[in-house]
Design brief:
Elements (H helix, E strand, L loop, with lengths): L5 H10 L3 H6 L10 H22 L10 H7 L1 H12 L8 H4 L18 H9 L7 H13 L4 H12 L2 H15 L3 E3 L2 E3 L8 H13 L3 H6 L13 H6 L5 H10 L22 H4 L5 H4 L4 H17 L5 H4 L1 H5 L1 H5 L1 H6 L1 H7 L1
Antiparallel strand pairs: 1-2
């Protein structure tokens, strides 16, 4: 006959256990446990530990690399990028090759055999973020800056009213001149030539970048109805292939260490370590060099997640805990004190 102690009965009463629960727990030693108090104690301990470690082992906090950094530190690279976007040079701006959600062409969309999420999304939702790089990344920001600089507005209007052939001639001449351009007091100086309004427009882009207002000009279209905008899509696409962002980030934050990848933090500190499960697959050359690397990694992580999700339903895998008996290590105090007694009552 099982005789419960007063402590066992009190614990069951606190749990609000019914007859069936009391029967199932027969023979299992119980005691009252204040989960709320322990949670508060643990939270307080962790909070103090985090604060102390943050003070002692803090990592340097560098500001975000933005267009202002690039325009100030690498004005020539900034202007070369802007001119390349205006000329729709695929080596500078690859937006046209991205496909959905920026364009309708799905030929370059990542796919694994018939699995092509980007193409499916385009078929269902259409092109949700149409972007024309020359218009959205150069012309419109300059038109907004022209409110403070009428001469810049005249240059933009002249360029917009010219034929595509004439625009191409101006851009070709200006981009060729950039190969021998110099930087003087932060300004890009090119040899005299017939560049039409392009030179004035690129000077305007450089000044807009140095002022720190370029990201705001990009976001203006998406920020008409809201006081704040957190969509930096166009700002990131501005330097999608060209290297100024990468070069500036390497110079400011030393983020070029290939051994860390996306989990690299400034200095010698680890960064977003929780992303390492994704990062590690990019270290496999066959995946890293693939055109559809991102989709492959997402596929691998999806399979692993599904395996974990259905682990209790997989006959072989679900018996692993019973084989390795880690639970006996976790509950070693109970097994050491009560296991023999519980077996004798069965």
């Amino acid at each position: 006959m099982n005789v419960r102690t007063t402590e066992d009965v009190r614990a069951l009463d606190l749990l609000g256990a019914g007859p069936r629960a009391r029967e199932n727990l027969r023979g299992v030693p119980l005691k009252p446990y204040d989960l709320l108090r322990e949670g508060i104690v643990v939270f307080g301990f962790v909070l103090i530990l985090v604060v102390v470690l943050s003070i002692v082992l803090k990592a340097p906090d560098y500001p975000t690399v933005n267009a202002e950094n690039v325009a100030t530190m690498q004005p020539l690279a900034f202007v070369q990028t802007a001119a390349g976007i205006l000329a729709q040079d695929s080596d500078i701006s690859a937006v046209a090759d991205y496909g959905p959600p920026y364009g309708a062409d799905t030929s370059a969309a990542e796919h694994i055999g018939p699995i092509a999420p980007a193409a499916w999304a385009k078929d269902i939702f259409g092109v949700t973020r149409p972007i024309d790089p020359p218009r959205d990344l150069i012309i419109r920001p300059l038109q907004r800056a022209a409110a403070l600089d009428p001469a810049l507005g005249l240059a933009v209007d002249r360029y917009a009213s010219a034929t595509a052939q004439q625009q191409g001639v101006w851009l070709a001449a200006y981009r060729k001149a950039l190969s021998t351009a110099t930087v003087s007091k932060g300004d890009v100086v090119v040899a005299p030539g017939d560049y039409g309004p392009v030179a004035r427009m690129m000077d305007g882009m450089l000044r807009l970048g140095r002022s720190g207002l370029l990201e705001g000009a990009f976001a203006a279209d998406d920020n008409r109805y809201y006081p704040y905008s957190f969509d930096l899509t166009k700002a990131l696409l501005f330097f999608s292939i060209a290297s100024p962002y990468t070069d500036s980030a390497t110079h400011l934050q030393q983020l070029g260490n290939p051994q860390w990848g996306i989990v690299h933090e400034t200095g010698n500190y680890p960064g977003a370590w929780w992303l390492d499960a994704y990062q590690v697959w990019y270290e496999v050359p066959a995946i890293a060099d693939a055109d559809n690397a991102d989709l492959i990694v997402v596929g691998i992580m999806t399979v692993l997640f599904v395996v974990l999700l259905v682990l209790p339903l997989i006959p072989g895998l679900r018996r692993i805990p019973h084989g390795v008996k880690v639970y006996r290590l976790i509950w070693r105090d109970w097994y050491r004190t009560y296991a023999a007694e519980a077996r004798s009552r069965e």
